[in-house]
Amino acid sequence: MDTRQITHAADLSATVEQLVETLVETKDFPRIVEVVTPLSTEQVVALLERLSTDHRAIVYRLLPKDNAIEVFEQFSPALQRDLIQGLRDGEVATIFSDLDPDDRVWLLDELPAALAPRLLHGLSAKDRQLTSEVLGYPKGSVGRRMTPEYISTRADVTVGQTMQRVHDQLDDAETVYTLPVLDGSRRLIGVVSLRDLLRADDGVPISAIMQDASAMTAYQTAEAAARRCAELGFLALPIVDREDRLVGVLTIDDAARILEHEETEDAARQGGVEPLRRPYLATPVRSLVGSRIVWLLVLAIGATLTVQVLSIFEATLEQVTVLALFMPLLIGTGGNTGNQAATTVTRALALRDVSPRDVGRVLLREMGVGVSLGALLGALGGGVTTVIYDPSVGLIIGLTLLAVCSMAATIGGVMPMVARAVRADPAVFSNPFISTFVDAAGLVVYFMIARTVLSL
Fold first, then answer.
1. How does it associate, per the subunit comment (predicted)?
2. Quick check: 24 and 55 in contact, CB under 8 A?
């Protein structure tokens, strides 16, 4: 196989994977180096994510040192943990020391607690201090995801002095494109971009070109800070303590990583599973089972509500058996309507288009949407049912669709708002639980309407 072709053909990833697997099993390490070395960092990451744990560690050891740390940084924290467990202590220490402080904390959050002191002890005094500063903030806070390696300047110095400072600290900072401007007490008073520094004359004071700063405190959630950074289009968002003293910056790449993690988690929980935290093919089967079984048990218990409703109205079903034919239609329509509303509102909450104080407005809007959808579907379903069966059954189906859609949309829209108000994850309150509740409540509405129309 021509190795040069591999680097330019994404569709050959399966072939590369099979080739590398064969080479590992035959212990042809020189050939592995020949195949893997020309690949880009992204291609190597994709390849390693698809290999087994043991083979992944072997191939990773054969990567050029400069490329190895770039590959490691692109893994998810859970996959980093898996890889570390397959490496020797010396290799782990080297990787850990080459990471940025915030990336070390991502990894430490995944590793066993007993391993963290050993890894921290192997760092230089400076790196250990920087990492400990980040570790000191609560889990989930932006302080735990910021980088303390930044370049700052002061309002009373010149552009030339600031550019010299940038030049001197270029290798130590994670970003140089946005510089926080501080006063004598290290309080944040503004920011200046590298573009403005390059445009201005050396003698111009920073106070003349700096802009107002938008910052977040280190104790606010990482998701909120990441969304703020993305919404404002900042390359780096200053992070301050409770006294407005600068403690770090959140870079745009870390913000994107946080948002990807949060959105993956929300999408998983809306589907009734726990997030995997690893690429699918790198996730053990037992982890896939574990991510789903708890939710399935919870939903199965919730589904007993539907069974109870059916037992209560068993006599009604015996008198009018045709009603049983429409139960899947009504249950499915109600669940889908509720899920649509919940998904829409959960996303609006994430984007901060709405907040818990808007619950009344959301309720009215979703009730209006539900009534409109119910009227349209009810007219269609009732009309078709009237033609096939009789007008009384058509009336039951039409009225039930109107009621169920109205109820489902209203509940689906309000539940995520309630979840946010009580500081729970809106995704957990959305699709699975709404479907279970609407199924049972929809059947109650269905049979009550049927009893009224048919005078049972």
1. Homodimer.
2. yes
What sign does the CA torsion over 266, 272, 278, 279 have? negative
Structural domain contains residue 311: yes
CATH of the domain at 318: 1.10.357.20
Q: Are residues 80 and 178 in the same domain?
A: no
**Rounded Cα–Cα distance for residues 443 and 102 (Å):** 52
Residues 235 and 192 sit within 8 Å (Cβ to Cβ): no
pTM for this entry: 0.70
Distance CA 259, CA 265 (A): 10
DSSP state of 142: G
The pLDDT value given to residue 8: 40
**347 is in which domain, residue-wise?**
284-454
Task: Give SS3 for 173.
Answer: coil
Residue 113 lies in a domain: yes
Give the span between the Cα atoms of 224 and 106, in whole angstroms: 18
Compute the distance between CA of residue 334 and CA of residue 339 in angstroms, rounded to an integer: 9
Tokens 């249950």 label which residue?
Answer: 331
Whether residue 60 is contained in a domain is answered as: yes
Between CA 217 and CA 180 the distance in angstroms is: 14
Q: 210: which 2 tokens?
A: 């700096």
Q: In the chain, pLDDT over 90 holds for what percent of residues?
A: 30
pLDDT at 14 over 70: no
Distance CA 188, CA 231 (A): 21
Report how far residue 61's alpha carbon sits from residue 65's, in angstroms, rounded to the nearest whole number: 9
Query: Is residue 264 classed as helix, strand or coil in its secondary structure?
Result: helix
Mean pLDDT of the chain: 85
Render pLDDT for 275-293 as a digit per residue (tens, 0 to 9). 777 777 778 788 778 877 8
